[in-house]
Every structure is written in structure tokens, then in C-alpha cells.
Amino acid sequence: MATARTADSRPEIDAALVRRLIDTRFPRWARLPLKLLDPAGSDHVIYRLGEELAVRMPRHAGVIGQARKEFQWLPRLAPYLPLTIPVPVEVGEPSLGYPWPWAVSRWLEGEVATVDALADSTRTAVELAHFLAALQRFTPENTPKTAREYLTSWSLSERDRATRVAIAKVDGIFDATAMTKLWDAAVSAPGWGGPPVCFHGDFHTGNLLTIHGHLSAVIDFGGLGIGDPACDLLIAFTLMTASSRASFRNALGVDDATWLRGRGCAMATGLNAYTSYAAVNPRVAAQTTRQITEALIG
Predict the structure, then answer these.
(1) What mean pLDDT is predicted for residues 189-210?
(2) What is the DSSP letter of 10?
């Protein structure tokens, strides 16, 4: 059955289940065709629904709040941002054995950004800096308390033990001494001294879309939060070279302490993904190797 659980308690998601959910919850779309987006991300199964919509089904419990978060926040953010972001249309409730909220959003055309195409692009680096600057200028104080509760926070200290364990695991593959030095410095760096600002929370290459080689959209705001914006510097180490990073940093006006925290965050998230997936996914292995290496370069 489509709703049977796997050994790790993740629901099995197929077209039959999604079709039944759509037809039951949103019958106005019952006749629209479904097409699986493959490959999708590790967090969601995504189907294109007709020509203008996308259905996003959480794969695991770690992202079950994302549908409602994006429904609350993205319509508020969109008018302030210089790149297109997804427009949520509906949130589907758990039903028919599927246990979590799921989302229907507007379909966004475009190709996932690649290092080969954009790594050296100063134009892209500056556009990304302007996007983050606009996101950070957005103030959530005037939004309902129930919406603010969906925002997340983060700190390097919360990742300290797991990051040091990961460094030990990859000793011999990467320079563990250099990684420990960077991590010690990042954890010890002064914290964010400004007012809390909005951050994307998962700002990497896979969440950028391009059309004809130019940035067109930013997607996947499941990590949207408020606090220290250093985590969004991740994009500088997943996409850019040293030269384009310098343009990005200058355009965004990043101070030394924030840059150092951003390098630490990029290394830590890269290590987490590498130790979790590299052995079984060569694409992840290549991407995270670059991310870790670039974070060490600075």
C-alpha cells in the first residue's frame, strides 16, 4: 500500500497516494496530471501538478513543519526580495494514512544552479548578496505571534560535539588539524552583535534556480529563521570561488567575526552531509568535499 511505513518509519509516497490526497482535499485539481520530479531533494518528494503547481510531500519527520511555515511566511517575504521565491497555494492536512502536512505551491521554471556555470560569476555573487541583504532588512515584528513561532534559530555551540566527532571520522580524508583549528576559531568568535535578522537557513547551490544561465529564484525556505545571519554565508562556499567570494562579501558587508562563523557553519554542515551520505552518494561526496575545502580556504 502507498501508506505503508518503511523500517525507519518514513511513509512510502507514490503517485497513487498523492493523486488520492489531491482528489480528496482539493477536488478542483483532480483532473490535472501528476509528474514525479526526479531526482528531488532528500527532504521532500515533489510532483508537478499540471503546468502551474507543485506538490511537496515531506519524506521524514524532520521537515513536517515546513509546509505551514512557508504558507505563513513566504507571501510576506516575496514583495521585499529581488529574486522570485515559491508562492504557497494550499496546505494539505494529514489524511489517508499519510501522517504530515503537505504543500501545494506555484511551479517555478528553471534549472538548479551549478558550480560549473556560476562559480566565477561576480554578477551572481553580487546578486546573491543583494538577496540576503533584502532578506535581512525584512522585519517580522509586525507579523502575528503564531507566525513568528515557526521561525527557527541556530548556533555553532549546538553543533560542537557532533562536529568534533565528524572531524575525527574524516581524519585522513580531510586535514583534521586544519578543520579543528577553523572550528575552534569559529566557536570562539564574537557572536552576532546586531538585532536579530531573517535568514534563509539552507542557502546552498541546490536551492537556487537559473534561467538561461542567470539566477531566477530561491527555493526551499524550510530553515527560515531569525537571529544570526552567518549561516547564509554557506552559499559562498558551496558555489563560489575565492574571487567571487570576495565580491560577495564586499557587497554584503560582512565583518570578520560573522565571516568566521559562516566558515565554521559551512564546514560543519558539509561534514554532517559527508559523513551521512558520501559513502552511498557520489554527488553528495563531491559537493560536500568542495564545501569543506572552500570553507578551509576561507
Answers:
(1) 94
(2) P
